[in-house]
Amino acid sequence: MRVLILLVALICGLPSFASARCDVTTPTEIVVLGEVRLAYQSVGSARDPALLMIMGLGGQLIHWPDEVLERLCESGFRVIRFDNRDVGLSAWTGSPPAANLAYEVLRYRLGLPVAAPYGLRDMARDSLRLLDALGIEQAHVLGASMGGMIAQHVADLAPERVLSLTLVMTSSGAQGLPAPSPALLELLARREAPNREVAIEQQADLLAALGSPDVSDDRVSLREQAARSYDRAFNPEGVQRQLLAILAEPSRVELLNRLKVPTLVVHGTSDPLLPVMHGVHVAAHIKGSELKLIPGLAHRFQDAFKEPLLSAVLPHLMAHRQLDGHWARL
């Protein structure tokens, strides 16, 4: 009878326990990794399998929706989100050579080599070194957009450390895939702003352009999102260096062909930046991978698509989740 009472008490207390364990307001920490300083947040129990989430171009850790993190954590994962080098509260302390973004973009469009102070593979090593600093030997890895490109390199550099790979709204970088419109590329590269107000309006314009045609954006909400990002950190030069790293990257088809980790590719049918064939192409070159297309999803984590994204991602993560025991995280 005592055992039964204990089990009932445990079960009844699980929701509040999970809520306390999955507190997304946990403080942001800083770790110094050589010439890179990374800001990160760890949500959940250190005894749970780690899920490393890698953000896209110019994105900060706050751009992963809190509700999504909570659901992932409540599903039994230690969720780690961080600012990539050169954005947010993270930094790259190298000495960048003088670079003309417009000139390098032109070279890219002409198929000529692009100069970049660092590459996506360097950023993948940042991710692995962050895991090292946290004492994590293996992790599930989820990357979005540029973060998905970085995640591809993580799985190539250290496949033995990747329990599963989830690639969201990303690309193989192969030639011949549909390109975004020049207008969208211009918005993406437009980072110079004389003051906070202009910077916020520019970011709101970009967010609107990356959104789904199936969703009506509220301009006030877009400005609020842009203001939150600006007030936390504003480093347009860092974003330009990240963009150069993407442009300087050759096709990753050979890399994808040799990946052997369990992989899920998720892409939206309405992505204006990386049209849906980018996701199809990625999945086609990773042996045994699974492809899930989400109707209407564009290139942002909009509220209307949080549940479809979780419904796509969670079964894959749970299928490859490793625990020492069912009660290890209680």
Description:
- InterPro entries: AB_hydrolase, AB_hydrolase_1, AB_hydrolase_fold.
- Pfam families: Abhydrolase_1.
- This is Alpha/beta hydrolase.
- The structure is a single chain.
- The chain has 330 residues and is α/β, with parallel strands linked by helices.
- 43% of the residues lie in helices and 15% in strands.
- It has twelve helices and nine strands.
- Strands 1, 2, 3, 4, 5, 6, 7, 8 and 9 form a nine-stranded mixed beta sheet that branches.
- Strand 8, helix 11 and strand 9 form a beta-alpha-beta unit.
- The longest helix has 20 residues.
- The radius of gyration is 20 Å and the shape is globular.
- The protein starts with a helix and ends in an 11-residue tail after the last helix.
- The N terminus and C terminus are likely disordered.
Helix-strand layout with pairing:
Elements: H1 2-21, E1 29-33, E2 36-43, E3 50-54, H2 66-74, E4 78-82, E5 91-92, H3 101-109, H4 120-133, E6 139-144, H5 146-157, E7 162-168, H6 182-189, H7 196-210, H8 219-232, H9 236-247, H10 253-258, E8 263-268, H11 277-284, E9 290-294, H12 306-319
Parallel strand pairs: 3-4, 3-6, 6-7, 7-8, 8-9
Antiparallel strand pairs: 1-2, 2-4, 2-5
Helix pairs in contact: 4-5, 7-8
Short description, anyone?
GO terms for molecular function: hydrolase activity. Keywords: Hydrolase, Signal. Helix content is 43%, strand content 15%.
